[in-house]
Write a structure and sequence with these properties.
It contains 16 helices and 13 strands. The N terminus and C terminus are likely disordered.
Length: about 650
């Protein structure tokens, strides 16, 4: 059995062929890229948003910083909401009371008028007498009704108007219909326009008195009045001939409306006064609380700037006064502690400097004696000769330690001076690598340099930069486990950077922030084969700070580490970023990300071929072999300056076996 399928309406509208669908889809993709890529409409929208935000920024900044403004504004809004709610309730109650009183009085007065009209219609006919004007003899129903309307309206004295309509008027509304010709009213009132149709229908279809709210409309004339709200009360009656007609009383609500307007204006004036009064009270109260807080904030800022003698002015015995006294006591204790720490630090620096200087004289004497013994070691027995060699080696390390201590004491005392001049960092890197080559050959390590094809010029102290790079390269060779050490140079914007990458033991989580501490070791049991003093990285980070630059570390356990030195291209120029990313591209996280992107790109052609022949012809983007990665934007923030990525132990073992290490 063959079954037919209905075509998709979308296919019918756009064409069932795959070519038209793919063409439409390609047009949509191009339109989407155009909009995402910055269409003129998008640029206009961004320009409009920027123009709108610019004048609002000062107000937003003031709103965020001024707590007094926020409290007063909140009080103003809350009090305004309360006044509005209260005003609505009061106006509703007053309006309901006025209308209820008016409705009760109108019903009572209209009932009396209906009774009088029906009584006149039921009065027996007389030929003469004082009531001859109301007699049925010689008079028709139309004349009688005109007289009735005038008589009933005369008792109102503008308190109400009277209108009479013929029976059936509520059902026939066309011009010239029966009953409309008999419409009559007092006071130039237009009865057909003033009496609502629903009320006429209710009066025609039922007995009793009916009422509704409407407007009194007047006929055109020399002194035409404007429509005014009114309460309309109507009832079905019979005339002198026994024929039915509708009689309506129209009670204007002008006085009630004026009374209600007076109540509204009174409530609005009082509410505005209350809102302004509450806002002023809130401003005064908040000012009494905020002023001491602002004073405390200003004094705290001056304390943080080093003016430790600042104190708050305390008056009274309230909570604010106790807060001021506590703040002053805290500032006093803080000043005493800081002075004690400064004195202790000064004594420590003086002690280190004095000891370092005092040790140089006996060290010189010991060095002279040690050199004599070392030169004559060929005449000694093997044990004594070895002791002479150990003595010379330890004296060399002792001299290096004294030199580092003196340098640290200069940094602590603020006596370190920067002798900056334009230098090519490639020359500094070459000198450092030449000095580290013997140690690298001994370790079986190869030192590679990348990014040295173009000059890398910066205003720096060549001696200090060389000392920093020597520490970094020697540490990388010592901890690199015999693997390659990569030195990368780059410059972009107003910054230059040198990164030293090794593939050794790496850094554990938390060690990247402590690696620059004095006398710190990642492994306390590890021997210093190069005679290091433990102060190299501490001096290096001080040298970087003296240049106004950064010295940052990254590492992962078993995946090596990278130290990055970033310097401003021009002295005294602030740094905004580094041209070399702190985390190298061959880290585990970046390799995993690159593998995921490669897998996604390899799957893209399969999805494209399944969608249509036109799309399958577009080749997927692939990475060019040997392509140099684009350096990071120098305006990008460097982050915390230290990052350590942990890895599982089993993954580390697998990678080590794969590398053959």
């Amino acid at each position: 059995m063959v079954s037919a399928t209905r075509p998709d309406p979308a296919d019918v509208q756009t064409g069932a062929s795959g070519g038209s669908r793919s063409g439409s889809r390609r047009w949509n993709l191009r339109a989407g890229r155009l909009l995402r890529g910055g269409a003129p409409a998008g640029r206009v929208l961004r320009l409009f948003v920027r123009l709108v935000r610019r004048p609002l920024l000062p107000a937003v900044r003031l709103w965020r910083r001024n707590i007094q403004l926020r409290v007063v504004a909140a009080t103003l809004l809350i009090s305004l909401s309360v006044v509005l709610a209260l005003g609505f309730v009061v106006i509703a109650q007053v309006s309901k009371g006025l209308l209820d009183a008016k409705e009760e009085a109108a019903q009572s007065q209209a009932a009396g008028g209906f009774a009088v009209a029906q009584e006149k219609a039921n009065t027996p006919a007389t030929a003469d007498g004082p009531d001859a004007a109301d007699s049925k003899v010689g008079r028709d129903a139309s004349t009688w009704m005109n007289s009735l309307v005038k008589q009933l309206a005369s008792g109102g004295q503008t308190a109400f108007e009277v209108a009479a309509l013929g029976a059936g008027t509520g059902e026939q509304t066309q011009p010239g219909a029966q009953g409309v010709r008999g419409a009559r009213a007092s006071g130039n009132v237009d009865p057909t326009a003033s009496v609502p149709l629903r009320l006429r229908q209710a009066v025609n279809h039922a007995t009793g008195t009916f009422k509704t709210f409407s407007e009194i409309r007047y006929t055109s004339g020399a002194e035409q009045k404007q429509p005014e709200p009114a309460l309309v009360v109507g009832k079905r009656l019979t005339d002198i001939n026994g024929d039915p007609y509708d009689l309506y009383y129209l009670f204007p609500l002008t006085q009630e409306e004026e009374s209600l307007n007076l109540v509204k204006s009174t409530i609005a004036t009082a509410g505005l006064f209350v809102v302004v009064l509450l806002s002023g009270i809130a401003w005064l109260v908040v000012r009494q609380v905020v002023s001491p807080v602002r004073m405390a904030a200003g004094i705290a800022e001056r304390l943080s700037a080093g003016r430790l003698q600042e104190r708050m002015k305390v008056t009274g015995e309230d909570d604010i006064a106790r807060l001021g006294e506590a703040f002053n006591k805290m500032a006093q204790n803080l000043q005493n502690k800081i002075q004690q720490l400064e004195e202790l630090s000064r004594m420590q620096r003086r002690f280190v400097s004095d000891v370092s200087h005092e040790l140089r004289t006996p060290l010189t004497t010991v060095r002279m004696a040690a050199d004599v013994i070392h030169d004559a070691r060929v005449d000694f027995d093997p044990v004594t000769a070895r002791s002479a060699e150990l003595l010379a080696g330890q004296l060399d390390r002792f001299e290096s330690l004294l030199a580092d201590l003196l340098e640290i004491s200069r940094f602590d005392a603020g006596a370190a001076a920067l002798e900056a001049e334009p230098i090519d960092l490639r020359d500094v890197v070459r000198r450092v690598i030449d000095g580290a080559e013997p140690l690298a050959e001994h370790k079986g390590t190869r030192i590679r340099v990348l990014g040295d094809t173009q000059p890398v010029i910066a205003e720096a102290d060549a001696r200090r930069v060389e000392r920093v790079l020597r520490n970094l390269v020697v540490n990388a060779v010592e901890h690199g486990e015999g693997r390659d050490v990569v030195v990368r140079l780059a410059s972009a914007g107003g910054a230059v950077a040198i990164a030293v990458r090794d593939y050794g033991v790496g850094l554990k989580p938390g060690e990247a922030t402590r690696v620059f501490n004095r006398f710190w070791r990642a492994d306390p049991a590890r021997a210093r084969t190069t005679g290091g003093t433990g102060l190299g990285l501490s001096i290096a980070v001080e040298d970087a700070r003296l240049h106004g630059g950064w010295l940052q570390a990254w590492g992962e356990p078993g995946g090596g580490s990278q130290f990055r030195l970033t310097l401003p291209r021009t002295a005294d120029e602030p740094l905004r970023g580094s041209p070399i990313p702190l985390e190298p591209e061959d880290s585990r996280a970046n390799r995993a990300k690159a593998a995921a992107e490669a897998a996604g790109r390899s799957a893209a052609p399969e999805r494209s071929s399944a969608e249509g022949a036109d799309r399958s012809s577009i080749p997927p983007r692939s990475r060019v072999a040997g392509a140099v990665p684009v350096p990071a934007d120098p305006t990008a923030l460097p982050g915390s300056g230290a990052r350590v990525v942990a890895r599982p132990a089993d993954q580390a073992q697998q990678e080590d076996r794969a590398d053959g290490r």
